[in-house]
Amino acid sequence: MGKRHRRHAGSDQHGRLRLTRRIADGTVTAVPSYRETSRPGLDGRIFVALLSLDELVRDMRSGVKFPSEILDGESALQSYLLYVSILVDIVLADIVMSAMNCNDQMVRMKLRMLVEYAAKAAYFDDNRDYALWMMTINEAEQTLRKLTDAESEPQAKDAVAERIAILRAQFPHLAHFQRPERFGTIMRRYASSDDVVWLYNAPSALMHGDPEGFRALMDVSPDGAGFLRIELAIEEVNAMLVDSGRNALMFCDRFIRCFRQADEDLAARYRDIYTAFLKMLLLHPLGRDAESLQEVKDELAVRQAIQ
Q1: Distances (CA, A) of 75 to 72, 197, 258
Q2: Beta strands in 16-135 (DSSP E)
Q3: Domain extent listing, the chain
Q4: Which is nearest to 45 in space by CA: 232, 286, 242?
């Protein structure tokens, strides 16, 4: 997660690119493209890395099964991570198409989704009792609330109410939990308040159609006329795509540590993709201050020295 709100117009230095996949070995490369299948200025190297990351998400989930029951914090975490891995997979596969089709505000909203998935995965991992409560008692309570709001049949509501009573008796040590933490509280464990506002709150206004989201779409032409915009400066789009990969990697780190710690091949692929995104972050630093960029340079130097 990183500062991504101070943006300016970028250049078209990366040229026109499209993606092609070699059937024999599954590799993905960026090659010159026709106008109708590309967008000037998008960095094809980011697309290649995102596709590699999406394949990592699918491979790390391969063969992993949901726990038969949620009995403790570990099984609650496993169930949650498997569930969210599907959502991460969906967003990664789709965010590239949004960028290619100039739906830049949707790129912003999909980045916001990955930010939320990554932070919640980390929080569930770091707070196993909270994960257990969320996946058992709170999940049942939320279901009952929806059934009540929908004026569902009494039998359906009674069955869920009975399940809640059983879960509360099964997990008495979770009685002190009253409601889910606000996401801003969760995210502040892993990001600055600045990031909470610009990576989560501001895109959320767009997603929910809140009036304040109007500002994100509003621009002013040189003659002073106001207009609404979907496209953003191309370098801002490149920067958001890099951030998307970085947040997806934060999720992957928690997933691999939970399920696949002994898989050296998977760990090596994760490290390679992580390093690739560090390099691209330096190529597309829009919105980051000098201190954070130096931290990235230092981390990259350490990783390259180890390799």
Answers
A1: 6, 32, 10
A2: 18-21, 28-31
A3: 18-306
A4: 242
